[in-house]
Amino acid sequence: MPAAAIEEFVLRALPEPEDDGPSAAARPAASDKPNPLDTLWRGSEWARAPASNWPSGHAALDGELPGGGWPGHGLTELLQPLEGVLECRLLAPALQRIMAAGKPVVLVGTPVQGRLALAPHLAGWRQAGLDERQLVWIQAETSAERLWCAEQLLKANACGALLAWLPQARPEQMRRLQVAALGHEGPAFLCRHERAAEQASAAPLRLLVRPGEDWSLAVRVLKRRGPQHEGWLSLPAVPAAMAGLLTPRLRQPHLLWPQRPGSVPAGVAAAGVLAEPGVLSAASLLCDEEPADAHVHALGRAAVAAAAGVRGE
């Protein structure tokens, strides 16, 4: 069949255009088609909010997170100078809501401080308002075991929230976990040392967390699906075990320290705890997670007492 005959046959098969009526006015012109570039996400703009998120319990932090809370369907990486110290204080408000909804919180592995592997301090989690009946701890020793457990839990969407300590995860392993987390509705937190900030990571949200001044937490958003974050956030986070014991004077211990530039309280130096000036306070030595070495914990209490000018009180 000639090409002209084929074209005529197709044109006859098409419906006649309607020039009158409201449908003609509503019909978009060819020039009104959306520009594909308008559908692209630019790094300087906020991405679409995740399908599920949970308020962190810290208003200043929620204002810097896409969707206004901890996101689901993706990894959240928590980097800190000392593992096992700040997780409970930062995450407790959100984990309370998840547990109240009847969903379990699963801990994979244990934080490592030096050569010590620290078991979760159940009393501290209980004092933070977390229900131990909704808390599951998987004691995975090796890095391979932790990675396998975390991946299977994410794939099965088996928990309300996942908290795993993966200090030695490689970039390709992080990508594998991120793919598994896409189908997990609850937040998934990976705790690592702050040195990991120099490595590439597939986690869409990365936070650097350090002890702050006067029982606060200093948080910096290293990576998010939105504009770059500058500076540090100061989040009030008094350890639950200390909230009812601190007097107004001891809630601001920096006022009791010598104000010499560059000085470090003697008690803190004796305990061997040093960090970036203006970020760490002696208050951070007391936390809900008690180290396995009782001598180290006692030394930490003595350092706080010495720094605050309290002698045996």
UniProtKB/TrEMBL annotation:
Residues 13-40 are annotated as: Disordered. It comes from the Bacteria. NCBIfam families: ImuA_translesion. This is Translesion DNA synthesis-associated protein ImuA.
